[in-house]
Amino acid sequence: MAQIDAFFKLMNEEGASDLHMVAGQQPALRIRGDIERVKFKVLDNESLKKMLYEICPEDKIKIFEETGDLDFGYEIPGLARYRCNFFQQKYGIGAVFREIPSEIMTCDELGLPKVISQLAELPKGLVLVTGPTGSGKSTTLAAIVDEANKIRKDHILTVEDPIEFVHKSQQSIINHREVGTHTKTFSAALRGALREDPDIIMVGEMRDLETISLAMEASMTGHLVFGTLHTLNAMKTVDRVVEIFPANQQGQVRSTLADALRAVVSQTLFKRVDKKGRMAALEILICTPAVRNLIREGKTYQIPSVMQTGKKYGMQTLDDAIMAMLLKKRISPEDAYTNAVEKQKFLRYLRKPPSDFTEV
Fold first, then answer.
1. H helix or E strand, kind and range, residue 144
2. Residue 203 exposed, middle or buried by CB count within 10 Å (0-12, 13-18, 19+)
3. Can you tell me the distance from the alpha carbon of 311 to that of 283, in angstroms, rounded to the nearest whole number?
4. Beta carbons within 8 Å of 14's beta carbon, 6+ residues apart
5. Can you list the domains of the chain with their CATH numbers?
6. Where are the alpha helices (DSSP H) in 41-108?
7. What is the structure's pLDDT at 143?
8. 160-164, 208-212, 223-227, 353-357: range with lowest mean pLDDT
9. Residue pLDDT, tens place only, 164-215
10. Nearest Cα residue to 270 out of 317, 324, 226, 231
């Protein structure tokens, strides 16, 4: 057993999402969104490096020592998988570990709206799950892929950096590919994917022009493509995809995206006040003909009003989702106000003036 495994067990027992191990500081856990120190000695660089290198493959150590950054996956059978990030900082080595549960929660168990599980039934197109870092995008995406795995007889291909949730083939065949281990880049994996007879492709992160372009191309050639982006809402997601392309291509990209896009799910995580744990507020955009026209014409600023009137299709704005959670007393007014888009609606629920004076 690796020395660091004891910290992973503590992390699991405390219900922490992340473990921070940094030279010059005590270890720390992120519990329900807050950093909590572990009662342990201050970590010195040499002993921490030895502890971290114990779980790191030799070829990855070489990459880390050359670049100062590293991502890889680590698993403790029967406990969980971990997304590991090593980095160099002023006082030596540092690492952050994100726990990925062994059991994949279903859409129902996560309390997601019914339309989310229905995305797994789409024959083709592009579905984007977006939100800030640590907002639960991977968990939502894993639940959708799990649903597809149960109900479809297809080939599902996932490309991630590193592999997070591990699915066992059920009705479908599932193949997992890790960037840096099984393929050089996301774009290389996507180019290869089109020759691997996939029906569904899951792209862990659409981080550059080539990956986004290939994902759109795959979705236009009869594949169902799921991907993630670090954007805050549906409107900004559409803008981000278009703006990553050169200005002279953006008109064509809008037209292609309007045809390819099927849905955008943007989520934000909240600390619950009614019980332990966290829950996600979801903004859901379903690409109806009206939405497609807005994307084609570059009128993305009108998307929020279409979501307001498109509730019968399963659409909802982030503010509506936040308000529903607030009225059920599941989240605090302060959290609701901080994460809302139109903050004015939430002002009257605050017990004292907002702490962010720049938003007033």
1. helix 137-151
2. buried
3. 11
4. 29, 31, 36
5. 5-101 (3.30.450.90), 114-348 (3.40.50.300)
6. 45-53, 58-67
7. 97
8. 353-357
9. 999 999 999 999 999 988 999 999 999 999 899 999 999 998 989 999 999 9
10. 324
